[in-house]
Records
---
Amino acid sequence: MTCQVCLSTLKAGDLFCSSCGAAAPDHAAGLPRAPAVEARGRIAGERKYLTVLCADLQRSTDLISDLDPEEAITRLEPALVAMRTAVRRNRGIVSKEGGDGLIALFGAPHADDNHAVMACHAAVELVRRIKLLNDPALLVRVGLHSGYVVTHTIEADLSSIYEAGGPAVHLVKRFESAAQAGQILVSESCQSLSAGLVTFNSLPPRRMEGFPAPVPCYELIEISGLSRWRARSTKGLSSFVGRAEETALLDRVAQEAGRSSGQAVAMVGTAGVGKSRVAHEVVEGLRQKDWQVLEAECNPLDQTVPYSLLKKLLQAVLRSANLSPDEALSSHDASSDAGLWPTALRSVLDQPIVDPRWNALEPLLRRRVIMDAARALIGRVTSTRPTVLLLEDLHWIDSQSEAAVEALMPLVPARKIRQAGCPSSMCAGFGYARSIWTRPTHCSTACLERKRDWQG
Ligand SMILES: Nc1ncnc2c1ncn2[C@@H]1O[C@H](COP(=O)(O)OP(=O)(O)O)[C@@H](O)[C@H]1O
Ligand SMILES: [Mg+2]
């Protein structure tokens, strides 16, 4: 008997080859096999609905035809680094790389409802990163398409590739080759999944090789900046039904906040159960009664971006008060920590920093000044009007903003937001509850359960 891998001779009764360690043929037949492993090292496919991104450098062969292989790789590598970074920062995975482009998947191997939006963000970042390389010869074209594919892992000799197959992958390549330099061309399915959160230009349908009818095309213009809720509600909402108990709780809490002390409410429930809907119904009612509404929402793409929620909250606060960071927190004592508050706000808002003391501060001190500045600003703005603070999708909060929101909690029952003449605030956290929302005595929790009124 011989080993099927290295062809060494095996002795009778050997379970493994003494030269290469491979299982002896009879023994291998009896070994349990992973159910998904098929012949030739392929892992059985999984059918998935996801978004595929295809990016390619235009006329890259012209750029490298006269170069040595090493020089050619070096010439194109910065563009490939930019592409990979954009994909990975937006939760995609690179499935395949050519020397001058790549194919990336969003929504695999782990399913994610946001796959189309993530792919749009990645495409915009990819084009921006290549522009930042400041190399006029590097011109990129991008195609995006959402559709069913079969994903599988292919074990090659030296690596394994997680690949998607099916017409969707062919179509995305057609979109990429139909794009002009710097353009992102998007299919109708990807456009309809991300419309509202992303802005598109509708283009005339195009004939594409291998597809019998002209294919509808969209050009990605920009990320819209609308919140997920606003983007969804602009498409139209069904009429609001049920949820009397939760609405009554929020109304009661608002009355209490208006009468005596600030309150916090956490709304907890599985995705799609109706947390945002109840929150917005109540908050719109308060807006009609002249409450100031400050809204900010967490985003799955920004979960690792420090202070991303706090940034949106500060923007909402400054917009509502119509103030700049310097006007909002000007201090007479520029030498104290309070003198650094406007700079702290600027740092969270990604605005230029002019005060040299800021860069000299220890990170922990910086963090403390940021928390103090945020608390001072929100305390100030909420002291003049009844205010509701609506924080959505807290399950995606970044850790620095979580600490900042925790630092804001003492404001809720404090005098600052219920000063004479202006009784004041309901501070509401909507989303999955975290410890911060359930701890304070002034915090109520509404646990939403699935109802049958509008959900089948
Ligand atoms: N009480 C309700 N009456 C009618 N439609 C509702 C109600 N609650 C939720 N919906 C609808 O169900 C969908 C999901 O609700 P949403 O509030 O976004 O869920 P969540 O925030 O819990 O993920 C939305 O389209 C919303 O308009
Ligand atoms: Mg929601």
Note: The chain has two domains: 46-226, 242-447.
---
Amino acid sequence: MVVTRSRRGYSPFACTGDVCAGLGAADLTDWNGRRISPRLHPTHRRELMMRYLRTLTLTTLGLAGCVVSADDPPTAQLSSNAIVPGSTTRALTLRASVGGQFVTAENGGGGDINVNRATAQGWETFTLYDQNGGTLQNGDLINLGTFDGTHFWCAENGGGGAVNATRTDPQDWETFRVVKIGGTGTAINDGDQIALQTKVLGVFVSAVNGGGAGVTGSATTASTWETFVVGGGSGPVGGANPFGPNVVIFDPTIPQATIQSQINTIFNAERNNQFGPRRDAILFRPGTYNVDIPVGFFTEVRGLGAMPDDVNITNQVHSDPILANNNATQNFWRGVENF
Ligand SMILES: [Ca+2]
């Protein structure tokens, strides 16, 4: 539950809904239990937006709920960096080079990491946080989030033993360096082979026996068991991002065609969804985007910059009439802001 005090002195209101599912859908009540419609009350709407962005920021920084890894001895971790601001994200799958099996976080996170899946689905899809932003390059420091949106890969004690997915706060044990194995150039793209080196001790993650078992983080050199094939696409993270599958976050490094495709997919789902349950949020990190954004029902489009000028949409954003004869009197439940 999130409780926030209005800047104008209104009573705080409590949200029992999922803010990530879209502002238009939030189940908001005031202290008297009355439902608040943010669309009809400008002050509440603004407050909801501020709270939403605050929650988003805190969650992005890994600070929501003041989450701390209780099982990490505080003296052993060198720092608490949470998700490094400016990190870019991408979906990632990893396949052992030797046996060709995919790496999975059992149950989508919170436990073991194994290398024993023939195909990649949700549990085998990770969110790669590229700490220095931009594209993924040889030598970049990364965090690897699991499908449940809660946990991160962790090399216990910074390396030398188990690697699991039991931590919720990405600190140094949860930070790895990507080392490109072979190939030309420094950029890492789908199909390239990489090794993962722990940040603290500089040892490498191994697929034990080349696959069919778990992973460890104790190899001093990157050889066959330490080599993984990158996959999963370089586009924005959908189902694997911390906010769930109905929140997409774009940044300027993502190809415009990829962004446009995802926007179109969302619009096609929301175009006539006046009475349906689906909710979507489309979020843009600061930058310029030459995309066309039709806004359907229950869709919120937001810039994530400190100021509206930080996000520029150079094509168009529009909400066309959904009824015949250019009748837009039922174009409800949608919003755009901060770009
Ligand atoms: Ca990078």
Note: Residues 130, 132-137, 140 surround calcium ion (CB under 6 Å).
